[in-house]
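Something for you to look into today, if you have time. What I am after is a single protein written out in full by you. I want to see for myself how the chain folds. Could you add the entry underneath, on a fresh line?
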Amino acid sequence: MIKILLLVSILSSGVQYQTEYDSMEDCLKAKQEIIEVNPDGVEAYCVTKSDKVITEFDRDMEEASKRLTRTILSTFQSILTKVMIDIQREQGR
């Protein structure tokens, strides 16, 4: 079953919220009401949301992606630290 989300962002404060609707028509009506109240101060979007069930494979792939990202960032930080130390040593000579 597909649900519809109304995503609203209040531009002056950065506050964001979402509300779920059963039909795109209901969402668009709510969006219009919000925009009429403050046309320049908010952004509002109606988007579809799927009830896709996350599988064990999806969770494993997400975890592997997170681990890979941490490893890459850690390696980059180590290399950058070494380069900075080498630069400081060269400037001290």
